Amino acid sequence: MSFLIALLFGRLGVSRLAAGVIVWAVIALVASGTALGVYEFIKHKGADEVRAKIEKGNQDAIRKGIEARMSLDECIDAGGVYDFGRQRCGAATLGPR
Asked: Could you give the CA distance from residue 14 to residue 70 in angstroms, rounded to a whole number?
């Protein structure tokens, strides 16, 4: 640390107090930049994980919707009545709908 202050003090002709302030400001800038970089990395990694989880849930919902639609179509084609609560085909109705 004193080497950096001596370098600024000797080579650039800056006062010893100003050289110390400059060195500490650079150290603070590097530390805060590193902390911000780590924070952004962790934030984006977490966001990617949440995004992937939501996308997986959406894909599962789409797949289940397609399966339910197919079974609904098959049920109606067979003359049955589809029970949406139980998600399955019931027997054909005996009277008019």
From this structure: 80
Task: Give CA angle at 66 (77, 82), nearest 5°.
Answer: 40
**Spatial distance between the Cα atoms of 68 and 89, rounded to a whole number of angstroms:** 10
Q: How far are the Cα atoms of 5, 22, 41, 60, 84 from residue 35, in angstroms, in the given order?
A: 24, 20, 10, 38, 53
β-bridge partners, 80: none
Please list the pLDDT of the chain residue by residue as tens digits (97 residues): 677 677 667 777 777 777 778 888 989 999 999 999 999 998 888 888 899 999 999 999 888 877 776 677 788 887 878 778 877 777 665 545 5
* Residue boundaries of the structural domains of the chain: 14-91
As to burial, measured by CB atoms within 10 angstroms (0-12 exposed, 13-18 middle, 19+ buried), residue 8 is buried
| pTM across the whole model | 0.47
Distance of CA 82 to the CA centre of its chain: 38
